[in-house]
UniProtKB/TrEMBL annotation:
<keyword id="KW-0560">Oxidoreductase</keyword>
<comment type="similarity">
    <text>Belongs to the short-chain dehydrogenases/reductases (SDR) family.</text>
</comment>
<dbReference type="InterPro" id="IPR051911">
    <property type="entry name" value="SDR_oxidoreductase"/>
</dbReference>
<dbReference type="InterPro" id="IPR036291">
    <property type="entry name" value="NAD(P)-bd_dom_sf"/>
</dbReference>
<protein>
    <submittedName>
        <fullName>Oxidoreductase</fullName>
    </submittedName>
</protein>
<dbReference type="InterPro" id="IPR002347">
    <property type="entry name" value="SDR_fam"/>
</dbReference>
<dbReference type="Pfam" id="PF00106">
    <property type="entry name" value="adh_short"/>
</dbReference>
């Protein structure tokens, strides 16, 4: 890849017990980088540090405990190394129809998928800004661009993180800080398995539109086309680039579905262009 940097870096990755976080952590360690990874259990922390003693550092961390985030980041900066790359990976999916889901479930989805990552960004930014360097990689989803019935709360959280990422990138570009939203399609992670919270069904009217999708999602779990290890290698190339993208789709399904969405948007905008333009003052 042209225009890349090969110096070793210190990564701070949220959620390294499995999925993309674990794959990226292992790839970064194999390339000689330091990785500070967050986990929720002491046993997982010890196991993570054993991957490469002296280079892998585990931190017990809950992204929803926003008051505890800044002290953890300060400790990493002062006791381990300056953070070159922040990867907001921790998150989960909520599956449930809007009418059948609760506001508390929506609030929890945003606490983990939006408020937590933003709090981590706010804690890391002063250090990156002072150094005039850094890269923030937010693992969002193709579901931050396209939508499917039955995971609207998840889509809402990922749409929010997409917008925040894009705007943030414009705010910090002059400081030498890059911001990228990575948008995976279907990958063999725990997202559709143990990491997904499923709301209880209660309204039969939705059975026809929703039940086939829920069943298909369950059947495809563990059989998705995307390989997290290959995605991790792409992310390392992205981070090493002198000119990384603002958005990076991961997987052929993401490319296909997002292109379809963009085409539908263009068609609809074109069809209603005259109506849209009619709202300006004469």
């Amino acid at each position: 890849m042209p225009g890349t940097k090969t110096d070793t870096k210190t990564f701070f990755i949220t959620g390294v017990s499995s999925g993309f976080g674990r794959a990226l952590a292992e790839a970064a360690l194999a390339d000689g980088h330091k990785v500070v990874g967050t986990l929720r259990k002491e046993a997982d922390r010890a196991e993570f540090e054993a991957l490469k003693p002296g280079s892998a550092f585990g931190k017990l961390f809950d992204v929803t405990d926003t008051a505890a985030i800044a002290p953890v980041i300060a400790a990493v900066e002062n006791e381990i190394a300056p953070i070159d790359v922040l990867v907001n990976n921790a998150g989960y999916g909520h599956e449930g129809l809007v009418e059948e889901s609760t506001i508390d479930e929506l609030r929890r989805q945003f606490e983990v998928n939006v408020f937590g990552p933003v709090a981590v960004i706010q804690a890391v930014l002063p250090y990156m800004r002072e150094r005039r360097a850094g890269h923030i990689l937010n693992i969002t989803s193709m579901g931050g661009i396209i939508t499917l019935p039955g995971i609207s709360f998840y889509h809402g959280s990922k749409f929010a993180l997409e917008g925040i990422s894009e705007s943030l990138g414009k705010e910090v570009k002059s400081f030498g800080i890059h911001v990228t939203a990575a948008e995976p399609g279907g990958f063999r992670t725990d997202w559709a398995g143990r990491s997904m919270v499923r709301a209880e069904r209660s309204i039969p009217d939705y059975d026809e539109v929703f039940e086939p999708l829920r069943q298909r999602r369950l059947e495809r779990s563990g059989k998705q086309p995307g390989d997290p290890k290959k995605a991790a290698q792409v992310m390392l190339k992205l981070i090493a680039s002198d000119n990384p993208p603002t958005h990076l789709l991961l997987g052929r399904d993401a490319i296909s579905l997002v292109r379809e969405k963009l085409g539908l948007l263009k068609s609809e905008f074109d069809a209603w262009e005259q109506v849209s333009a009619s709202t300006d003052f004469d």
